[in-house]
Every structure is written in C-alpha cells, then in structure tokens.
Amino acid sequence: MKEIKVNIYMTAEEVSNRLNIQKSTVRKYAGMLDTVDTKQPFFHKDDNGTRLYSEEDIAWLEQLIRIKNTPGTKLEDAVQTVYGLRYNGAMIVDTENSNSVALLQDVMSLMQRYSEHQLEIIKRQSENIDRLETLVEKLLLDKIETEQNKFKLSDLAEEKQVAPKQGFFKNLFSPK
To answer: Cβ distance 51 to 44 under 8 Å?
Structure first.
C-alpha cells in the first residue's frame, strides 16, 4: 500500500514565532526566494495567494538565515545559495542539530561547481573572441588588399593615358 504524505502548512506568523524572527522578515525572505525563478515558486500558496510554509520550507528558511549570518555574506548571495542547494538536492536534512562545518562544506562544494561551470563558460567565450578577432583581422587585411589593388589599377590607368588622338583632318591642317 502506498503511503500518502500530507503536508501540514504554517502561516508566516507561526514561522516567525518558531524561527524567532519578525513576520515581515519571513515574508521578505520568502519573497526573495520566490522571485529567483518565477516559473517555479519556492513556496506553496493557497487559493487566496497567501504563502504557506511546510516543515521543509522552514528548514530552507533556517538554512538561509545561517548562510546570511556567515560573516561577509550578503542576503542576495544567501538567497541564491539556498535556491541552488534546494534545486540541486543538497539540503542538510537535520536542521535542528546541523553542524555549521557541514553546511559550509555543502555551500563551498556548490560554489566550486558553479565556479567550474563559470570558468568553462569563460573559456568558451574566450575561444569565440579569439576566433572573431582572427576573422576581423582577415577581413581588414582583405579590405586593405582590395583598396591597394584599386589604387594600383588607377595608377596604371593614369600611366597608360595618352594625349587624346586628333582627327585625320585636324592633324592634316593643324599648325605644326
């Protein structure tokens, strides 16, 4: 028999009491997480559009608070990290007793993967830039060569130009 999992949802006020933060802070963090990807909302909403929070959602908010409270971490960066952790399946499950070292290792691992991905993108862009620079250089050289050939042809045409021929009768009767 298949087990049916029923989610129990809490309001922002209940979450704020549980996490010991202001209700407005819960809404701010939830709003920031929801706006990372508008096609895939982070939190469940009821028919009225009110956010409801499951146990898993509360665990993600706790992760966000921990990461945000890490010295030198901006809230925006913490939001991106939590979003990345959630959708890459790298959540620290035991939020009550989670070890900050384990959290930091997960975050660092995720950041390293993002960095490697970004380096690969930069490498490809650099190769494209090199290829485009070579193409532009070739086109410029072709253009210069074409212009030089035009000048050579015009110089040759000027050299070959002779005094205009005079008609037969004009040559016959013109003073010499």
So the answer is: yes
Give the model confidence (pLDDT) of 46-58 as tens digits: 888 888 888 888 8
Largest CA distance in the chain: 125
The amino acid present at 89, given as its one-letter code, is: G
Please check the confidence at residue 138 and state whether its pLDDT lies above 90: yes
CATH topology of domain 12-98: Multidrug-efflux Transporter Regulator; Chain: A; Domain 2 (1.10.1660)
Q: Give this prediction's pTM.
A: 0.48
**Residues 85-114 pLDDT 10s:** 877 654 444 444 445 566 677 777 777 777
Structure token digits, residue 130: 């090199």
At position 171, the amino acid (one-letter code) is N
CA separation for the pair 168, 133 (Å, rounded) = 61
Classify each residue of 116-142 as buried b or exposed e, where b means 16 or more C-beta atoms within 10 Å of its C-beta.
eeeeeeeeeeeeeeeeeeeeeeeeeee
Nearest alpha-carbon partner for 79 in 113, 126, 28, 6: 28
| Residue 27 vs residues 34, 52, 87: alpha-carbon distances, Å | 10, 11, 21
Q: Are 105 and 68 in contact (CB under 8 A)?
A: no
Amino acid, single-letter form, for residue 49: G
